[in-house]
Design brief:
By secondary structure, the protein is α+β, with helices and mostly antiparallel strands. The chain contains six helices and ten strands; from the N terminus they run H-E-E-E-E-E-E-E-E-H-H-H-H-H-E-E. It comes from Streptomyces citrinus.
Amino acid sequence: MPEGDTVLQAAKRLHTALAGQVLIRSDLRVPRFATADLTGRTVLDVISRGKHLMTRIEGGLTLHSHLRMDGSWKIYAPGERWRGGPTHQIRAILANDAHAAVGYRLPVLELLRTAEESKAVGHLGPDLLGPDWDPDTALRNLRKDPARSLGEALLDQRNLAGIGNVYKSELCFLLRVTPWLPVGELPAETADRLPLLAKKLLEANRDRPTRVTTGRPRPDERLYVYGRAPRPCLRCRTPIRVADQGDGTRERPTYWCPTCQQGAAPTR
């Protein structure tokens, strides 16, 4: 699933291609909105909110989309071949004289009143890359369920918005705790560092084409733990481990160093 920095970059690309321009083509290929016609309306702006994309359109309308695991928005020039996937995977087309924005495999696509955007994103916690960021609120949200594992709490967008599976693993490594450590067992100093460190990671990558958390340029050393099992830890050379973490209905591969990180962890 794309993380907050990736979604912010998508919003910027869409904004550059669409904002201030009149739509000459509009095609929403989902049953509920298949008859909606936005042709002739001006796109006002495109913003991200956590992992959500909000395309605001003249007349008080917002096209809300979410990429989840496989969705994407591609931008094409007139006459350019569309390469984002088979035609049957296209869920939305917004085009002006200079660009066509094509949404592929979008699991969430809805048209709503701009004044009612809160129905789609009002449940989110403070956005790590947004104007509403508040580290104190984010930390209070995380601490509401002290028995919950840190990894699951970080992925809960109601606590703070923008962290995905990559940053979950990387952040826990930098804090030197495992993703399975209960939130209530976080040392106070570590807990206080968490929101600011999370923001620092996303801020550092908001404009990068390739995500880096280590500061190292080599492709196999750009991340500390995510995707690196069973290669050696960049700090201690212990083999990185991977195990699924989730609530029983949705499991995600989670990476950690059993030497550098302290706390609960799977035994197998």
